[in-house]
Structure prediction request, 146 residues.
Amino acid sequence: MAQVSRGRRLMGEINVVPYIDVMLVLLIIFMITAPLLQQGVKVNLPKAHAQPLPKSENNPVVLSVNSQGQLFLNIASDPQTPLDSDAASAQVTAALKQDPDRAVVVKADKSVSYGVVMQAMVMLQQAGASKVGMATDPLPPPRPGG
Prediction:
């Protein structure tokens, strides 16, 4: 004999409260990790009209030169620790042996002398970088009527 349930109806609703909790946790995680994804060391870049680099699968090698002339490399074990020229060159050489077409960018503070930036670029070329780009901040848009 089949049993008939009396007075009970099946609920056809989905409880979305757990999904909202998961979404809020993910939002908090992304808000915390997004600032950590910045590459290189904070430097005061010069402003210029320049085209952005084309998107590639690998992140570019970014050599940052701060206002004191210290070198920082985004692919180093600790990107916030200054490197000497030999250590930076060795790490760039190793990275470019794995991917010779990887983009290489110099991100130099605008107060650094031209000679220090050129030494950094020569070091990158000796490490195997065939093309070296310069990072700049975009110029502000022109004011209307001015």
